[in-house]
């Protein structure tokens, strides 16, 4: 490298362009170039370089330090690394996350704290709990936990679906796939992170997975836009749908979004058009499409990837056109009435399956999917494989037709009313005459008419009991033979139709009679003036608060639960004695009737209870030939005693009736026990704060005077409107 001289006399020009010096490499030098004037009107281009900047000067007299000897490490033989199974930036979270508990889990938290406190106190005094005692305590806690999560209300399931620690789409993908490769981009300038697409394998079968991805913490939620896709996300999903359809890969979509992102930019970029395009195109794909709802499915944002052949919903997932909070704000102008809106909307998995909007419910681990994510993923994988086995048997035309018909029938409901049979005496007599006519025609057709007529004439002429008994036995044998040949008669269908109608009329007649008698007994309880007045006032307060019991004043809750409990016990006593129910069954049905008391739904509830009990009783009688014979004997004795005063009260009939009632009660109890056989041992209900206050409240010696003169707010401690009992307490 040469140093460029500053004077033109020091070096010869290198070219005719008056540039002095030799070319320099600028990789390791700092170059400064410029021009300056020389002489008359001429200019010289100069280049300066600091060539010593990167060099270090060492003292030649100083001996270099000897380098320390490095120990030779024998490296173990390592196998070449395999390619990772999941090509995605998403990684499982390290460490354990602090559990987040929901409001309805408060009773469980209290039990857990008591168990921990008991263990701590025992450890402090050096006492070890016996294993049997500890197992009993934990068993009761487990049963209580199962019951709490089995009987969740719709709004509680909404809260579980929104749980911050609920497994996301990619959490499940890592657990259920053998290999997964994430694919990016909508080929229109953006890759929406709220929708994740990729190819994955389950037991050798390749699937196209498309799902809405939420975050597991604040940072991820901001990155994923809280699971709310933009138009780019839906176009990205559509791109890979077409890719899967072209190569014949089944499509599995995962829904977990509160809705499509509704900001100004998304609307400007065509959010509605992107969703509509997905809906239209998904109806035309010739591969099986399975949709799994993981958490909440919000309106069109969820439906845009949910046009499928089979929709599977996790047990605690929800699917709605508007969130419960939004619905309550629109209908009642109060977002706090979201629990009521959740009940009315029918948004839970089981309710949607009953409405034929969803196809199956995937069970979750007790406590929700977040309590055991791997088990939840395992269940999802099993349902995907089973559903895929079912859909793989269908041709392309059948898949398209099934998907189309699935959505076409949504919203079509036919209310089928139970046919009301005419149970008037004239109608019953006419039906009997029709049955006799058809029966005689059938006997003539199969050749038994003359034989039966002859035996009946001889039976009427019989004088001695032995002759009568002999003829009756012959007639029974002939009737058994007739029953074998009766189906061959030409008019057998008409005869069977009349016979079935007679059975239904008899059943309706007995049900109406039971309902009338039971209604009269319960009416005496409901028509009590004091009870009716208190219920009317409480119902007025609840109605003024839009029917939401959870937001009432605690004092009103206490009064309401107290009155309903009294009514429930009185009704249970009547049901147990009249319908031959066990105490448990009578209490459950009385609880249902007490809830509907003094409302327009009470008559329907009463009819539902009576029909259910009559149906169970009929099944019990059909399964017990001995009981059936006894009931036939009772019917015959009553018919023989008709017209004879005092014959119905004979000891023989009364003893037989008592035996029949005992057997029916025993059969109903056995039937109920069979239903509860696989259920956990019943525990005391987890009571709300109001119900606990009802039990803890000291009972007054005299008859309490309860007088409510205004709405719930007027019952508060600071109000001048107080009940006489509160005023007496204050004094």
TrEMBL record:
PROSITE patterns named among the record's database cross-references: COA_CT_CTER (PS50989)
Q: What is the lineage of its organism?
A: Eukaryota, Viridiplantae, Streptophyta, Embryophyta, Tracheophyta
Enumerate the residue ranges of region (Disordered): 1-37, 60-91, 671-731
Pathway, per record: Lipid metabolism; malonyl-CoA biosynthesis; malonyl-CoA from acetyl-CoA: step 1/1
Q: What is a GO molecular function of this protein?
A: carboxyl- or carbamoyltransferase activity
An annotated GO BP: malonyl-CoA biosynthetic process
Where is there biased composition of kind Basic and acidic residues?
64-91, 672-700, 719-731
This protein's name: acetyl-CoA carboxytransferase
Q: Is this entry keyworded Nucleotide-binding?
A: yes
The Gene Ontology CC terms held by the record are: acetyl-CoA carboxylase complex
């Amino acid at each position: 490298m040469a140093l460029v001289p500053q004077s033109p006399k020091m070096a010869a020009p290198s070219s005719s362009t008056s540039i002095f010096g030799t070319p320099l490499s600028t990789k390791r030098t700092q170059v400064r170039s410029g021009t300056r004037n020389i002489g008359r009107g001429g200019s010289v281009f100069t280049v300066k370089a600091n060539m010593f900047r990167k060099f270090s000067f060492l003292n030649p007299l100083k001996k270099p330090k000897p380098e320390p000897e490095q120990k030779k490490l024998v490296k173990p033989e390592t196998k070449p690394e395999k390619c990772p199974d999941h090509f995605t930036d998403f990684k499982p979270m390290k460490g354990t996350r602090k559990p987040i508990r929901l409001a309805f889990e408060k009773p469980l938290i209290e039990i857990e704290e008591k168990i921990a406190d008991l263990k701590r106190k025992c450890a402090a005094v050096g006492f070890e709990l016996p294993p049997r005692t500890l197992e009993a305590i934990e068993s009761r806690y487990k049963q209580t936990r199962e019951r709490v999560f089995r009987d969740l209300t719709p709004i509680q399931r909404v809260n579980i679906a929104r749980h911050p620690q609920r497994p996301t789409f990619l959490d499940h993908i890592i657990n259920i796939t053998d290999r997964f490769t994430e694919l990016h981009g909508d080929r229109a300038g953006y890759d929406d992170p709220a929708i994740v697409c990729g190819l994955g394998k389950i037991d050798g079968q390749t699937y196209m997975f498309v799902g809405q991805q939420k975050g597991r913490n604040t940072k991820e939620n901001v990155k994923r836009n809280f699971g709310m896709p933009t138009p780019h996300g839906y176009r990205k999903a559509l791109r890979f749908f077409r890719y899967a359809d072209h190569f014949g890969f089944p499509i599995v979509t995962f829904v977990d979004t509160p809705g499509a992102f509704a900001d100004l930019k998304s609307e400007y970029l065509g959010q509605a058009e992107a969703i509509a395009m997905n809906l239209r195109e998904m109806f035309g794909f010739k591969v099986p499409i399975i949709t799994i709802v993981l958490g909440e499915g919000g309106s069109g944002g969820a439906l845009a990837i949910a046009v499928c052949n089979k929709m599977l919903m996790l047990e605690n997932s929800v699917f709605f056109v508007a969130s419960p909070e939004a619905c309550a704000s629109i209908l009642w102008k109060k977002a706090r009435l979201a629990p009521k809106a959740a009940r009315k909307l029918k948004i839970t998995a089981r309710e949607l399956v009953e409405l034929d909007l969803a196809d199956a419910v995937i069970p979750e681990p007790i406590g929700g999917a977040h309590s055991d994510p791997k088990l939840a993923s395992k269940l999802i994988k099993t349902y995907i494989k089973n559903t895929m086995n079912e859909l793989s048997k269908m041709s392309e035309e059948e898949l398209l037709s099934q998907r189309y018909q699935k959505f076409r029938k949504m919203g079509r409901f036919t209310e089928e009313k139970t046919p009301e049979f005419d149970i008037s005496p004239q109608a019953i007599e006419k039906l009997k005459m029709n049955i006799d006519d058809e029966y005689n025609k059938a006997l003539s057709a199969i050749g038994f008419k003359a034989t039966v007529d002859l035996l009946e004439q001889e039976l009427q002429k019989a004088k001695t009991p032995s002759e009568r008994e002999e003829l009756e036995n012959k007639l029974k044998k002939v009737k058994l033979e007739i029953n074998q040949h009766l189906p061959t008669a030409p008019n057998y269908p008409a005869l069977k139709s009349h016979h079935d109608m007679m059975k239904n009329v008899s059943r309706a007649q007995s049900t109406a009679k039971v309902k009338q008698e039971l209604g009269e007994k319960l009416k005496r309880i409901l028509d009590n003036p004091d009870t009716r007045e208190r219920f009317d006032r409480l119902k007025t307060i609840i109605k003024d608060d839009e029917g939401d019991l959870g937001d009432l004043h605690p004092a009103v809750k206490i009064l309401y639960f107290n009155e309903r409990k009294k009514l429930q016990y009185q009704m249970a006593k009547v049901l147990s004695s009249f319908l031959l129910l066990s105490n448990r069954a009578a209490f459950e049905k009385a609880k249902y009737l007490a809830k509907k008391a003094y409302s327009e739904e009470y008559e329907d509830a009463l009819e539902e209870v009576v029909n259910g009990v009559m149906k169970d009783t009929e099944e019990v009688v059909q399964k017990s030939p001995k009981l059936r014979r006894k009931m036939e004997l009772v019917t015959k004795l009553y018919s023989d005693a008709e017209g004879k005063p005092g014959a119905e009260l004979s000891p023989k009939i009364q003893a037989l009736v008592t035996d029949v009632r005992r057997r029916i009660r025993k059969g109903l109890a056995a039937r109920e026990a069979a239903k509860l056989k696989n259920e956990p041992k019943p525990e005391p209900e987890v009571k709300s704060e109001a119900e606990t206050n009802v039990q803890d409240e000291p009972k007054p010696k005299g008859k309490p005077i309860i007088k409510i003169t205004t709405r719930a707010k007027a019952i508060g401690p600071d109000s001048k409107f107080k009940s006489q009992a509160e005023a007496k307490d204050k004094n």
